[in-house]
């Protein structure tokens, strides 16, 4: 087999602050050893992909031409991106597709002709050469769309549950909870008997989560949000939070509410309660700073949370148990829903970019690189 | 023995926001069981005492009369203080004094006539009734002044070192590092072979720390502060910080510098390095919010740090080992220096309040309740 040619999306930041996102033709060599060549059928656009694709670049006033976008990166963001300047970067954390060629290795040979789901970057492309260990064969009755989001959201939802259990917490607070990830978390915590307080931003999102059986849903747009949040935390005993937003004061509001619940009926202590309270920031829907008011005593932790280091720390056995659970429940507990489907060309159009880059909770887009 | 009468300082916040700090006469019963009665000789004013004594109340425009101050608490601060409203609170975490009476218990009897150092609150008073377990007998050659600050600062300095070692860190960043606590930390880390980066705010403080042998001292008022901070972190390998300030961006600056050092020479990763970075906030010299820019990847923790829960978690054996080390080195490693000495009456005078409540780094005051 000779080389295979196909389109691939690249994002390149120049030193002068110009960000170029473009489709280029890529030539992939034949797979060797444990490598497989996958024809990509579906790849979701996750918030974590958007950070690499555009980051805080100004997409509204960018120049759009066929297969190419040139946008300006704001000056304050350049410092944090120094390490990527001048490097053409592939984008797309996960995808599903069909193995069309394989190296001689047995792990690769076992996947020939199989539909697989993959993690590993560079997935916004027509073809991907990847080690067999980065692939998971899908059950026969799972479609490419159903298998496209089998890693990031499902493993993150299970990672939250594992983190909460390991920390001795009996209930979780989750923000931006109407997301695909949030819906998975509602279902998983129900099955696992863990409490969950869902924070959303609109009445529609309250209805959506109630519709799938969520018990505690609080709307941060309501005037009595803080009282309701405190009541839900008291009802569930939540002492850990996972926050997708990052910027602003919501992490402080959650820790403050946990502290108020922990201090109920206690004598005044200037140092606050001794109840451990832990908030994990796993996303940056708001890229502004996290504002910690520290109005919650001295017994608190705020941490970054990211799937790969979590999996590394949890160990191979836990990771494999989690993967198995996802594979067995892809069309139920871990089902994803998509707002729209885009070809690679369409994904570089202005209307599409403005829509999916708005990161509206629960509105997930899917790229179909081979039409 | 009948009751003993003496002056005691109380801080009371009324519902209308008026904070009254006053000296009242207190009548203490004779000690029983394991209790001892201590005539207090010296009690330091620590930043942690000022939070309870005045908090953010407006002491500049308060009414001062003999043995009484009435100040106004700003409205935004009242919410966090709801639990103390209407309660007359004693102040003063630690002190030294002489045991003048004891209960029948052997632990109490063993202390009769001894000079002791104590922790337990209510120390801004002429007498204190306390359980023998809250006292530590001082060596004969230690004066009341030398023994007055034997708990809060020394145990905190050792607590930082224990926390850093337990987390696998080989060097510490410390802010407001010219404080009495900071000077102890310089000496302890030298003995223990742990790296230390001292952040101070003036050239005078740089000179002070260099004078006691500190190797890495960076001045946040210098134009090239961030570069120097990064260099000092690179030179020491510091991955943990203890911050006395709380408000503002210094925690972010430290984590950002640690991240830059960890990423040197690495390929670009939008998620940042996998180097654990931990900042502990142990004080609130700036009561404003902690601003986390999150410009330091996803592998980070920011936590509150407080001595009592640390000691509880560390266990009795570690705590006793730390106490023993303090007792053995009170006039060397753990020596404190005082800016001025005040009687209880003087401590309620306007000039004195404005001076000690300014919390100037390294300017510690001592109350001598019995003249």
TrEMBL record, chains A, B:
Domain named Enoyl reductase (ER): residues: 17-353
InterPro entries in UniProt: ADH-like_C, ADH-like_N, ER, GroES-like_sf, NAD(P)-bd_dom_sf
One Gene Ontology molecular-function label: NADPH binding
Keywords in alphabetical order: NADP, Oxidoreductase
SMART domains xref list: PKS_ER
Name of the molecule in the record: NADH oxidase
């Amino acid at each position: 087999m000779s080389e295979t040619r196909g389109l691939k999306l690249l994002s390149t930041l120049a030193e002068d602050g110009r960000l170029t996102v473009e489709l280029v033709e890529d030539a992939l060599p034949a797979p060797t050893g444990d490598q497989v060549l996958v024809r990509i059928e579906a790849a979701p656009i996750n918030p974590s992909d958007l950070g690499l694709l555009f980051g805080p670049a100004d997409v509204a006033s960018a120049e759009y031409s066929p297969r190419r976008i040139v946008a300006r990166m704001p000056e304050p963001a350049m410092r944090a991106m120094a390490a990527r300047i001048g490097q053409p970067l592939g984008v797309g954390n996960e995808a599903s597709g069909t193995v069309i060629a394989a190296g001689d290795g047995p792990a690769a040979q076992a996947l020939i002709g199989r539909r697989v789901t993959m993690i590993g970057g560079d997935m916004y492309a027509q073809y991907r050469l990847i080690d067999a260990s980065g692939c998971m064969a899908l059950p026969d009755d799972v479609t490419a769309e159903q298998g496209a989001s089998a890693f990031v959201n499902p493993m993150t939802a299970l990672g939250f549950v594992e983190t909460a259990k390991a920390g001795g917490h009996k209930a979780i607070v989750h923000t931006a909870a109407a997301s695909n990830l949030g819906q998975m978390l509602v279902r998983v915590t129900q099955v696992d008997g863990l409490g969950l307080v869902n924070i959303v931003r609109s009445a529609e999102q309250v209805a959506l989560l109630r519709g799938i059986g969520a018990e505690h849903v609080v709307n941060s747009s309501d005037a009595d949000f803080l009282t309701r949040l405190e009541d839900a935390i008291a009802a569930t005993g939540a002492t850990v939070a996972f926050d997708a937003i990052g910027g602003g004061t919501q992490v402080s509001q959650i820790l403050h509410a946990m502290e108020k619940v922990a201090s109920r009926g206690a004598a005044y202590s200037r140092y606050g309660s001794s109840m451990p309270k832990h908030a994990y920031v796993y996303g940056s829907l708001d890229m502004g700073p996290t504002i910690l008011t520290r109005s919650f005593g001295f017994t608190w932790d705020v941490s970054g949370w990211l799937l790969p280091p979590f999996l590394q720390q949890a160990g191979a056995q836990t990771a494999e148990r989690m993967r198995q659970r996802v594979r067995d429940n892809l069309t139920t507990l871990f089902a994803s829903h998509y707002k729209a489907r885009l070809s690679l060309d369409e994904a570089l159009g202005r209307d599409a970019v403005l829509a999916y880059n708005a990161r509206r909770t629960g509105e997930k887009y899917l790229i179909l690189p081979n039409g």
